[in-house]
Structure formats: C-alpha cells, structure tokens
Amino acid sequence: MLQIGTKAPQFEGADENGNSIKLSDFKGKKLVLYFYPKDSTPGCTAEACDLRDNYERFLALGYEVVGVSRDSVASHQRFREKYQLPFHLISDPDHKILEAYEAWGEKKNYGKVSMGTLRTTYVIDEQGTIVDAIGKVDTKNHTAQILD
User: Fold this and answer.
1) Which of 33, 44, 123, 130 is catalytic?
2) Do 101 and 2 form a contact (C-beta atoms < 8 A)?
3) Which residues contact 110 (CB under 8 A, 6 or more apart)?
4) Which of 80, 112, 117, 130 has an alpha carbon 20 to 30 Å from 33's alpha carbon atom?
5) What is the pTM of this model?
6) Cα(45)–Cα(140) distance, rounded to whole angstroms?
7) pLDDT score of 110
8) How much of the chain exceeds pLDDT 90, in percent?
9) What is the mean pLDDT of the chain?
10) Whole-number Å distance between alpha carbons of 65 and 73
C-alpha cells in the first residue's frame, strides 16, 4: 500500500457516463478513493451501499467519494443506477490507476493464485496527500473505518 504522508499519484479515467475524472478535479477537497473488485458482487455492493447510506455525512465533513474498478463504463452505469449510488465510479480496464495506487496484485481464492484488484481505500487531503490507507476493508461498515 502507498504510505500515509506521500503525495497521491495523479490519475485520469472515465466515469459511469464516460466523462473524464482526474485527481486534480478534487484539489482543495478531501477525497475518499476506494478500489473494489467487481460491480454487483455481494461484498462490493455492501461496500458501495454503506458509502451511499453515509454519503451526506461525507459531504458534510467536506469529503468527495469516488470508486474505481476494472468494470466497464456501462457496467458502472448499471451498478450506480441499480443501487442509486450518488458518487462517481471510474472504469480502469487496463488497471493503470489500480497499479499506481498499489491496489492491483496477487490474490488467493480457493487455493488458486491470480492477479486482481486488492480492496483498498485511500483518504486524500485537500493538498493531494494521503492521510489514511485502509487495506483490510470491512465492506458492511466501511464508513466507520474511514471516519472513526
């Protein structure tokens, strides 16, 4: 994982509408940037819905929330609409953003080793510095992990 106190890597990707989103869009704002494996899977849905249910709390504290996965723009659009997610989801099919944020790596599933998305969240301050890094995400209580 990237270290707390380091500058967040620059990124640019397409959101669920195909619009470009980049780190510099959040200059002067706090950002919760979360990386998740796949739209509409149980853990990823629980995580997104927990963030959705607490979105107003994030906004009140000056945070923006953005999710990143390898899913397509169309998949993100369906996922966002189905669960009424109020925040943007970035499509990263080439896992360039995932790699820059060290959220891409070796995973073990039922004894099989493969490369994939490592569920990770970074909190980035107004100056673009990482102020928190969460590698062991509790998908059902992720807001509490971020804000407590």
Assistant:
1) 44
2) yes
3) none
4) 112
5) 0.95
6) 9
7) 86
8) 95
9) 96
10) 17
Domains of the chain: 12-147 (3.40.30.10)
The first and second tokens of residue 85, run together, are 């997610």
Spatial CB neighbours of 108, under 8 Å, sequence gap ≥ 6:
none
- Read off φ and ψ for residue 56, nearest 5 degrees: -60, -35
49 is catalytic: no
* Pair 136, 128: CB distance under 8 Å: no
The conformational region for residue 47 under phi > 0 = left, psi -120 to 50 = alpha, else beta, is alpha
DSSP the chain: -PPTTSBPPP-EEE-TTS-EEEGGGGTTSEEEEEE-S-TTSHHHHHHHHHHHHTHHHHHHTTEEEEEEESS-HHHHHHHHHHTT--SEEEE-TT-HHHHHTT-EEEEEETTEEEEEE--EEEEE-TTSBEEEEESS--GGGHHHHHH-
- For CA atoms 84, 87, 88, 89, give the dihedral sign: negative
Question: pLDDT at residue 148 above 90?
Answer: no
With a pLDDT cut of 70, the percent of the chain lying above it is: 100
pLDDT at residue 69 greater than cutoff 90: yes
